[in-house]
Q: What sequence folds into this?
């Protein structure tokens, strides 16, 4: 992963854990309305893909146990990982693109309800993403994948396609930029990746017609499965964030100026609300800053936040970065991973940081969006995330009015009971995240995500389930009295 050039190791924020009485009066543990529902507290576990679904995208026992384990800590809101809205093979990513997925998801919602005593609101993150392929070996790229053009033939002077391909493959790397178009060179060096601007491809051109009903159907299934709400994934490297991005230059009315870039997200929101409003909370996660050259900045995010509030969204969860554009070149045979560049770092900042450090690093983005939403006359709750791992820090975010709810991903993974421990006045017993991103490295390799602080503990205990490698436990040990 990219790291800031000044790379300083930071200390965890000093812990000032409250007594149970202090916690009971704290802002963090007061209820808050989200749409027509009420979250019992302002604590939030955001979406985290744990790679536990089947290869066909079905819920497994491990998926259920993973979410039930978070629910034991009784966060106000728990968001289930990015879940694919299409009925297409997507590897072991959870899916909701067909009714056959509903039964498993229903078991998941039931398990969470039971584990949280009905206290936690459960949302599911709905995602669409475009095709991406692994970086090809050079011989395969020139031998098969590259679509030969007259420019290639002219550049190397081949008399047949086979000879042209062989001559291209033999070229030194330094000559490739002269001979290949920029996208061809990218396909070779990073693997083929579709963009929302590839409108010469019919399935990309038709996205504005296809996506609203796909999102709406998925949301309807989420309601049937018993979720309290849906989080539309408008963040990071995926389709909807790419429509919002200032890099979206589509000329069909869905790209260019902000008003056009927000058009498809608005149509998705309208379709989803038409199907489920009143039966489920509808909100979205989007970027407070794309952190890539030419991408959106916080002023764009503030503008979009107001549009989303106006369109009727009931919460706005703010993330940052996580883009393909600045991701590192993958090894041959691997896929580009959108959390390896600076924008990835900003999404999941580590303890090795610049002068600002990783803690509550992205809260100002949520604060800017929230201020704009309020100035426009809306009170839509805004969720902040990024390096929030301690009580006083979370309280300060709420007290200053920078956000309405506080999300903690990695701290909740390190200790799913941490909210419950604070409430019980047992903050000293919290297993504190070290922000070195072992979990994120597992995610990158599509391995079952665990935390280094507990995944080797008591592996032979009777109730322990092990990861596929046989070396790690899949769930955090229980330590709450
Ligand atoms: C293993 C892992 C998987 C993640 N998966 C998702 C995801 O599916 N959707 C999403 O919006 N964010 C995802 N994130 C980002 C987190 O939700 C969160 O925004 C980020 O980790 C920063 O918050 P933190 O500092 O509290 O960890 C993931 C993070 C991790 C560590
Ligand atoms: S693996 Fe590291 S970064 Fe991830 S939750 Fe555990 S301590 Fe935190």
A:
């Amino acid at each position: 992963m990219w790291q800031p050039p000044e790379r300083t190791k930071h200390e965890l924020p000093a812990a000032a854990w409250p007594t149970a009485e202090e916690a009971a009066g704290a802002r963090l543990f007061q209820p808050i309305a989200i749409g027509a529902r009420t979250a019992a507290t302002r604590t939030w576990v955001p979406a985290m893909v744990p790679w536990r679904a089947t290869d066909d995208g079905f819920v497994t026992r491990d998926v259920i146990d993973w979410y039930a384990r978070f629910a034991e800590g009784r966060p106000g809101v728990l968001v289930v990982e990015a879940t694919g809205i299409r009925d297409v093979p997507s590897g072991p990513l959870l899916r909701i693109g067909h009714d056959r997925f509903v039964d498993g998801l229903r078991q998941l919602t039931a398990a969470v309800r039971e584990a949280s005593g009905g206290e936690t609101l459960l949302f599911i993150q709905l995602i669409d993403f475009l095709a991406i392929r692994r970086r090809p070996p050079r011989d395969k790229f020139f031998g098969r994948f590259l679509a030969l053009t007259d420019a290639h033939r002219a550049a190397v002077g081949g008399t047949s396609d086979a000879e042209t391909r062989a001559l291209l493959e033999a070229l030194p790397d330094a000559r490739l930029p002269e001979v290949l178009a920029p996208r061809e060179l990218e396909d070779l060096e990073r693997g083929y990746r579709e963009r929302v601007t590839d409108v010469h491809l019919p399935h990309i051109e038709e996205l504005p017609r296809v996506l609203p009903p796909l999102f709406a159907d998925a949301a309807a299934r989420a309601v049937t499965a018993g979720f309290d709400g849906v989080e539309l994934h408008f963040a990071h490297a995926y389709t909807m964030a790419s429509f919002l991005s200032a890099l979206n230059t589509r000329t069909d009315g869905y790209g260019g100026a902000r008003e056009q870039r927000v058009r498809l997200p608005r149509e998705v929101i309208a379709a989803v609300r038409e199907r489920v409003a009143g039966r489920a909370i509808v909100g979205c996660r989007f970027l407070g800053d794309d952190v890539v050259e030419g991408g959106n900045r916080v002023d764009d995010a503030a503008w979009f936040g107001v549009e989303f509030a106006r369109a009727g969204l009931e919460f706005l969860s703010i993330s940052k970065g996580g883009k393909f554009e600045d991701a590192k070149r993958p090894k041959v045979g691997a896929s580009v991973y959108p959390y390896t560049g600076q924008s990835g770092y900003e999404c999941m900042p580590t303890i090795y940081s610049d002068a600002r450090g990783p803690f509550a690093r992205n809260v100002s983005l949520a604060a800017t969006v929230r201020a704009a939403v309020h100035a426009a006359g809306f009170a839509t709750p805004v969720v902040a995330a990024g390096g929030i791992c301690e009580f006083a820090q979370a309280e300060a975010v709420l007290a200053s009015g920078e956000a309405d709810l506080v999300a903690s991903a990695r701290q909740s993974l390190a200790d799913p009971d941490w909210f419950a421990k604070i409430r019980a006045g047992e903050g000293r017993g919290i297993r504190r995240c070290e922000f070195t991103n072992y979990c994120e490295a597992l995610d990158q390799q599509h391995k079952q995500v665990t935390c280094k602080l507990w995944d080797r503990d008591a592996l032979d205990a009777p109730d322990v389930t092990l990861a596929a490698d046989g070396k790690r436990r899949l769930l955090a040990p229980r330590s709450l009295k």
Remarks:
- Residues 46-49, 81-82, 125, 235, 285, 319, 347-348, 385-388, 408-411, 439-440, 443, 449 surround flavin mononucleotide (ligand 1) (CB under 6 Å).
